[in-house]
Amino acid sequence: MTAATIGRPGFAFQAIAIATLAALFVGSLFVGVTNLSIRSLVSDPEALRLVMVSRLPRTLAALLAGSALAIAGLVMQTLARNRFVEPATAGTAQSAALGILVVTLVWPNAALGWKAAGAAATALAGTSLFLMLAHRLPPTQPFLVALFGLVYGGVIGAVATFLAWRLDLLQYVEVWMTGEFSGILRGRYELLWVAGALVALALWTADRLTILSMGRDASIGLGLNYAGVLRFGLVIVSAVTALIVVVVGTIPFVGLVVPNIVSRFAGENLRHTLPWVAGGGAALVLACDMIGRLIRFPYEVPVGTVLGVVGAVLFLILLLGRNRND
Fold first, then answer.
1. Least CB-packed of 96, 119, 120, 310 within 10 Å?
2. Is the pTM of this model over 0.70?
3. Which domains does the chain have, with CATH numbers?
4. Cis (ω within 30 of 0) for the bond into 298?
């Protein structure tokens, strides 16, 4: 039985998945240095204010960032026709950080929205160049594309680091390269709702993206505007990555492991898999953020660091399972 014939998960599995995501969402509201309870939310105005100003925005930011990163990873894998790429390992996130640095140098007092626009522009350019070069690589060597993406992203990251070092902005750049939610407050995360809207757009074009994954010739033969859908996918990947880098920093592996895990049980039809990928990404980021808050309580480990470990382990498990099946 192939992945494409597995079909959608059953009702019981869907109920468990939704309940797990809801439990993580609620649990995130009550994990932190200040002890909270349902009773305190009712009787203590300060406790309720803490939830509304800090805990709820942080939880929503983790949910939005996780779902958007997972969708961006799936879209990028569709565009590249390769399961081993994602924005954080193919130069998109590094290009976004470089764009923020350039905007900061040209316009030091720029608002967050302008920084996001500059990051999206450089991320779009960096991702377009990556796909153009990746399509020249042998299609029979999928790991070569992933290796090239790591080198490509490393070069762009090195350029950003060098410029930051020369301009005494290394600590500033480090904020964008390490994802964390500790600084998320009400009024500081709202740009992520734009990323959520882009996720909805990806769902709206799921059928076209599925056809795109068949390749240029097959897509054009089926009447798809291949170039237009390709550009649309590039915009989604670049804009989502830029928004997340600007608000919370770079979060690795979400867009790599979640689509691969979902495809194992839900198949390759993006109309069916996109909601599962979004939910899986949200659950993974929420869980890792909670682990980061608890592992050295009352101190925090950045979610990017936690996901660097958890994501690497999950990716190795996926690779070992793939090799065993082969």
1. 310
2. yes
3. 3-325 (1.10.3470.10)
4. yes
Whether 230 and 208 have beta carbons less than 8 Å apart is answered as no
Which residue(s) pair with 299 in the sheet? 296
Confidence band of 23 (pLDDT split at 50, 70, 90)? very high
Q: Are 25 and 56 in contact (CB under 8 A)?
A: no
Query: Do residues 148 and 226 make contact, with C-beta atoms less than 8 angstroms apart?
Result: no
Asked if 192 and 65 count as a contact pair (C-beta separation under 8 A), the reply is yes
Phi, psi values for residue 179, rounded to 5°: -75, 135
Q: What DSSP string runs through 142-188?
A: HHHHHHHHHHHHHHHHHHHHHHHHHTT-HHHHHHHHS---TT--TTS
Dist. CA 90–CA 171, nearest whole Å = 23
Q: What is the pLDDT of residues 210-236, one digit of tens each?
A: 888 888 888 888 888 888 899 999 999
Output the CA–CA distances (angstroms, integers) from residue 60 to 4, 52, 181, 236, in the order listed: 32, 11, 10, 20
Could you give the 3-state DSSP secondary structure of residue 296? strand
φ, ψ (nearest 5 deg) of residue 142: -65, -30
Token representation of residue 170: 């290394």
Give dist(CA 174, CA 298) in Å, integer: 23
Output the CA–CA distances (angstroms, integers) from residue 12 to 7, 16, 43, 210, in the order listed.
14, 6, 37, 27
Q: Are 145 and 80 in contact (CB under 8 A)?
A: yes
Total number of residues shown for the chain:
326
